[in-house]
């Protein structure tokens, strides 16, 4: 069986040339996957549709949704997001969100699926923030619940930054469990309580990180019976990441991905993965870190 991968060319939006967000990593990941599957036997690519307004409104306010779609986001919110709110950026957000929804549907059908974007976990109901326009995972969760494809959803967020937007959206919803393992002193300054938050000290390395993750994830899987699992596989806990404060190695990231897939798939649960954060001036190194997710996922079909 091939690994189901969701990708859209629009994931690479047009932003100023010297912007600090590494937008070119999305095209780089798709290129890496195709170059490393020359026989065409490992990966099966799907191109998502832009998410519908109806799906967005299950999570985001009508005012904010319309502001994004019409590229009329207030200046203060645009600054919090960190992107110029152009048609290209707005369309990227719609496609990435549609991509996470398609990834969830493919995971429910095939057991495992990966989006080459997604993980915009700082976006809240009324606005975006931290390079996040729409909260793609939250929109996808609400869509599969509305279609009765899944009722209880576990979100494993291993991006180095706490998933404050996702935590806030599902704060009073017992059908969604939000688990965030993140750098305690990193962005955002004002964190929102997840179902389970595990803040980590600066400079934590592979062995301690993996031991904590294994203990806590086993506990979560035992206590919360999910129909679907989302995994935010941000690589910004890497020791060389510009915006991280942890110290994982490449091998630590690979072991992290393998641990998540092994524990979740051993429970027989469908697993939908999204890319999450990763910030480096060296796009080649960054792509190689993100590619670990897909290499590991292909072993758990």
Automatic annotation (TrEMBL):
<dbReference type="InterPro" id="IPR023696">
    <property type="entry name" value="Ureohydrolase_dom_sf"/>
</dbReference>
<protein>
    <submittedName>
        <fullName>Acetoin utilization protein AcuC</fullName>
    </submittedName>
</protein>
<dbReference type="InterPro" id="IPR037138">
    <property type="entry name" value="His_deacetylse_dom_sf"/>
</dbReference>
<dbReference type="InterPro" id="IPR044150">
    <property type="entry name" value="HDAC_classIV"/>
</dbReference>
<dbReference type="GO" id="GO:0016787">
    <property type="term" value="F:hydrolase activity"/>
</dbReference>
<dbReference type="GO" id="GO:0004407">
    <property type="term" value="F:histone deacetylase activity"/>
</dbReference>
<dbReference type="InterPro" id="IPR000286">
    <property type="entry name" value="HDACs"/>
</dbReference>
<dbReference type="GO" id="GO:0040029">
    <property type="term" value="P:epigenetic regulation of gene expression"/>
</dbReference>
<feature type="domain" description="Histone deacetylase">
    <location>
        <begin position="21"/>
        <end position="283"/>
    </location>
</feature>
<keyword id="KW-0378">Hydrolase</keyword>
<comment type="similarity">
    <text>Belongs to the histone deacetylase family.</text>
</comment>
<dbReference type="Pfam" id="PF00850">
    <property type="entry name" value="Hist_deacetyl"/>
</dbReference>
<dbReference type="InterPro" id="IPR023801">
    <property type="entry name" value="His_deacetylse_dom"/>
</dbReference>
């Amino acid at each position: 069986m091939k690994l189901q991968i969701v990708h859209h060319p629009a994931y690479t939006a047009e932003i100023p040339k010297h912007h600090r967000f590494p937008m070119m990593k999305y095209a780089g990941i798709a290129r890496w996957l195709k170059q490393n599957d020359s026989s065409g036997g490992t990966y099966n690519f799907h191109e998502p549709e832009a998410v519908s307004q109806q799906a967005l409104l299950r999570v985001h306010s009508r005012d904010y949704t319309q502001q994004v779609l019409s590229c009329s986001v207030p200046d203060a919110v645009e600054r919090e997001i960190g992107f110029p709110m152009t048609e290209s950026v707005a369309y990227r957000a719609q496609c990435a969100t549609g991509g996470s929804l398609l990834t969830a549907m493919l995971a429910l059908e095939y057991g495992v699926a990966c989006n080459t974007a997604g993980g915009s976990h700082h976006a809240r109901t009324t606005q975006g923030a931290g390079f996040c326009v729409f909260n793609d995972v939250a929109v996808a969760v609400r869509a599969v619940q509305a279609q009765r494809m899944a009722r209880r959803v576990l979100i494993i967020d291993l991006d180095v930054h706490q998933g404050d937007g996702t935590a806030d959206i599902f704060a009073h919803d017992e059908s969604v469990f939000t688990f965030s393992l993140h750098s305690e002193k990193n962005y955002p300054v004002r964190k929102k309580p997840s179902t389970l938050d595990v803040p980590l000290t600066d400079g934590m390395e592979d062995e301690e990180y993996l031991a904590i993750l294994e203990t806590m994830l086993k506990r979560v899987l035992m206590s919360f019976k999910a129909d679907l699992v989302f995994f935010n596989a941000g690589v910004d806990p890497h020791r060389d990441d510009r915006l991280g404060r942890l110290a994982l190695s490449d091998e630590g990231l690979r072991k992290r991905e393998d641990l998540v897939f092994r524990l979740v798939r051993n429970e027989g649960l469908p697993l939908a993965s999204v890319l999450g954060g990763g910030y480096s001036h060296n796009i080649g190194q960054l792509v190689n870190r993100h590619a670990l997710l897909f290499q590991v996922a292909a072993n758990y079909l």
